[in-house]
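Review form for a predicted model. The reviewer records the input and the model, then writes brief findings.
Reviewer: anonymous (R2)
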Amino acid sequence: MSLIKWNPFLGEGYNIDDMDKLVNEYLPAVRSGQFGFTPALDMYEDQDNIIVETQLAGIDPEKVSISIDNNVLCIKGESERHSEVEEKNYYRKEIRRGSFYRSVQLPTKVDGDSATAVTEDGILKITVPKAAEAKPKNIKIQIGKNKDKK
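Model under review:
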């Protein structure tokens, strides 16, 4: 058993797996080695598809690239700055501009060739059909008749 150095910022019960979870779930830019604009996303499923939604308000859909390789979805693009205000006159500057990149492992095997993407009201919705082997299968139980019963 190895010793774990106590850290007052992490509290009691600190576990290295907890830190990995924090980094993987909440800090995707740190995990990927990129510090910049990283769009947040929602991922959910229905019976036949994995659906990913992300806010890309103010970004030209023509400047967004989406790819799926080995069940990893990648979204990348660029947000342009259209303001003529010089940076030294800002009181706050919180809107992120520039290149962005987000990749996420999809939770099941998918058919990336049949994926579709639609943007409406600043929301990009990507629908990726599940692969046939990943869809749930219902198996009906057959009742056998015992011929030896009298």
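Findings: The chain is about 10% helix and 30% strand.
Further findings: The first helix runs from residue 16 to 26.
Recommendation: see findings above.
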